[in-house]
């Protein structure tokens, strides 16, 4: 009986300890969370904060993060700032005794882990300040999330010399954006942006100027966010420099946070702890005061995209397109705007400037970076006329008896009420007519058509009227059947918002397929311009397929939808398709900087930083195709010609998914080999099963081309044949320790020998003859990014089969 009582008491005690451990936020070693909809989280004692996988509904990914759990929108306060985060469903995080928190993908590959501490982890702790802490057996803090801030700092969190906050790409896109805040060693807090990722030039647009060169003995050495919600800078003498408002409400009533928002503004927010209805975060303080003006940077580096206008609301930038312009990407309101007309100097002959163009008149708009000519003195009338008669002029601004002509792209646009200027925005009468905003646009042609029909009826005989009515009924029936067909096609594309184009539309858009951008195994690509939406006129690339079966409508549409469902920043986006009679065409977004082949094999060697950035981007895109998109794909033709470059030279994989379309081709080759000479994996020749490892092989060859800036197979002079095959040459140089020979005279690479060796070893691992020895693209991506160690590869031993 006593024994039973003892066991009961012991059970109650253990139960109490477990409850206490859960209530005080403590977590035992071995605790695990898995990314899924109903995944649990690790709560702080009060329940204010949660640590775990936050489900991002937009792309069905999960963000390993800390968030405010009592607020309906689950505001994120911290997240793992890693290219691998967000993660796919089924990923997990475990609290490990040796490495702390370890994030793994569904296959068990390590994506991220805590580091920078010594000793063993005894337990974890999610506290009520939003700080996740690792403690050792002596309860000493050995790691904390506060020491690795992402884009937000919270009360009781400090910034020390060198601390950095990085912005996101957007409010819902947690990849690293183009802004960062840094606390400098001189005691200044600065905001900077790298306007062009490949340039390496940081543009500073805010500086606290809190350092005092005359008093170096009393420097600012901390940025403090105290428990009452006050944000200030602290000097060695304990003097303070206030940043946030002094009069803030009690921290017991309000949550506070300071965040570097994706738009580049460092903002101090408050939110009531107890609320009813849909309460939101309130802006209490922000720097810079006017980001539209302060973020002046390089051309195109403003708060808003090119040709856009920036205005302020509560110190936050609001971006709008001027009249006659629409967003290039309707889903990116901070992006660039495009004119609704073509502007060129090859106009219709025998037409005057007044016949071709007119202007919309506005005031107080300013684009400071786009001037190319000043006329002084000049009247408003003369300024307008000068712009109309100049084929390069997009906007003219008249002010103080002077005229400034500006050409596209218009950079760093903003409202400037202090300038008292008259602005003339030019538009083409031929491409688009000005619309009366009160009437919703001209309808004169419809009216003329109606009048013409009425005239025919009133002026014709009864017999002719009967014939006319019969013809009209027949015509309506034809139109009705055609619309039914089009409706069916549109329904097939509803899931992906793809547009179904008619062949006539695409012929007109490409000027009857006049300008050829390139050609490959799937067909020819033409440049065109069309309205992807009702108002958005943009350049497009139209691929005319020539190897798809003509009687497989359902299969074609299914594969087009599959391609259309992909959504990744390193893939070229499919905008629509044409399936009409014998015509099969795909419409893609246009990439202005051409192919990777033209960049690598041109007269000028691109920077090493840009090349490594491109290689990493391609790897991420292939990871998405192989593992993360709703219908995983094997590309089958990775090569420089199929890697396109966007405005900022980000790599975008094209032609993905087209191999699936070839599966419905009625005239397949006997070997079924797909790909391009030099990039084809050996297993294509062996009648064995083809897996995603064929793309890994092709990527390996491509990576070596990116490193060396030379083609895989080159024609060489007699006596130089040893270097004709790139993979052979790379292996020889690697074995003999002569990697310098691969990048001769490329001094930027020679100063980064460690990364050069790593990239070469990754390339050799990818081109192994045995597919089982090749890493997956996810592992390749992690090796490129330094997450996974790269060991010395074996000899590829495949050269005879790649020529």
From TrEMBL:
What EC number(s) does the entry state?
2.7.11.1
For this UniProt record, the keywords arranged alphabetically read as follows: ATP-binding, Disulfide bond, EGF-like domain, Glycoprotein, Kinase, Lectin, Membrane, Nucleotide-binding, Receptor, Serine/threonine-protein kinase, Signal, Transferase, Transmembrane, Transmembrane helix
Annotated residues for binding of ATP: 543
Cellular component, GO annotation: membrane
Recorded catalytic reaction(s): these are: L-threonyl-[protein] + ATP = O-phospho-L-threonyl-[protein] + ADP + H(+); L-seryl-[protein] + ATP = O-phospho-L-seryl-[protein] + ADP + H(+)
According to its UniProt record, where is this protein located?
A: Membrane
Q: Which residues form the Bulb-type lectin domain?
A: 24-147
Q: Point out the signal peptide segment.
A: 1-21
**Superkingdom of the source?**
Eukaryota
Q: Where is the Protein kinase domain?
A: 511-785
Task: Check the record and name the InterPro entries matching this protein.
Answer: Bulb-type_lectin_dom (IPR001480), Bulb-type_lectin_dom_sf (IPR036426), G-type_lectin_kinases/EP1-like (IPR051343), Kinase-like_dom_sf (IPR011009), Prot_kinase_dom (IPR000719), Protein_kinase_ATP_BS (IPR017441), S_locus_glycoprot_dom (IPR000858), Ser/Thr_kinase_AS (IPR008271)
Where is it mainly found?
membrane
Alphabetically, which GO biological process terms does the record hold?
A: recognition of pollen
Bilayer topology: Single-pass type I membrane protein
Q: Per UniProt, what is one GO molecular function of this protein?
A: ATP binding
List the PANTHER family hit by this protein, alphabetically.
Answer: G-TYPE LECTIN S-RECEPTOR-LIKE SERINE/THREONINE-PROTEIN KINASE SD2-5, G-TYPE LECTIN S-RECEPTOR-LIKE SERINE_THREONINE-PROTEIN KINASE RLK1
Question: What is this protein's name?
Answer: non-specific serine/threonine protein kinase
UniProt source species = Coffea arabica
